[in-house]
Amino acid sequence: MSAPLPPPRESGRTTSTEVPLYWAAYGSPGGERTLLLHGGPGASHDYLLPQLLELDSAAHPRDLLFYDQRGGGQSRTDAREPITWHTQVADLGRVVAELIQGPLVIVGYSWGGLLALLYAVSAASDPALRQIDRLVLLDPAPASRAFRATFEAEFSRRQQSDAVRRLRDALAESDLRERDPDAYRHRAFELSVAGYFADPEAARDLTPFRVVGRVQESIWASLGDYDITPELESLRVPALVVHGRQDPIPLESSEAIAHALGAELRVLESCGHVPYVEQKQALLDAVNHFL
Question: What CATH topology corresponds to 10-147+210-290?
Fold first, then answer.
């Protein structure tokens, strides 16, 4: 099982959003504040820990800010109104206005990368939203509904592969369920996401998370038959796109995003959708060099 997560340096709840959102700050208080957006949608920030906390170091001091997006983690709500991508962009704008004073530096992972792009497109026509100064996209969610369909089919295929099946059989045949139920549940979670990895055996020592299904479904439904790439071509934001070669999200999706933004694309070898676990040092080097 993974070790206990380090506590945040500071935490609280937003006061400017319609629903109070949980936020947590880690790292160097004197460093440049860097906002990290978790994936999902409908998940929470803590599964990016502890690995991405290493974006703060003596050589690269950063004040790392995370928040749980509306509907997930410690920002769950009992309200039954659908949460849409517009909701998430509006929340992000208020988080930025409330908690970030200096340059707006965003690192978005998976869905968080697509959320950052939706925000950037919205900010281009809404003066109430601050422009992004630097943007890092880590294995961003599919740029279009067509790419998403390709991803869904590939992830399903991987989860049914012989490699993952063997890992499931080994867990079922072990005595872990009886000997250590918590460790059994943890391992079962890891196998539920093993298809994201270039090597399913690498899905270990992960921080478990839960996705709120109704939030995930309502946000993807709100995007409809989307394709964000045409709207990115007019943006002027320095950006880096990082993509694992073996990510079930097709590399062509990140290539399209990088081309539209005029951004650098860094492809990590022997890496799937979880670069902060599979190729952590290569990821940190790429992000630190860009920032």
Answer: Rossmann fold (3.40.50)
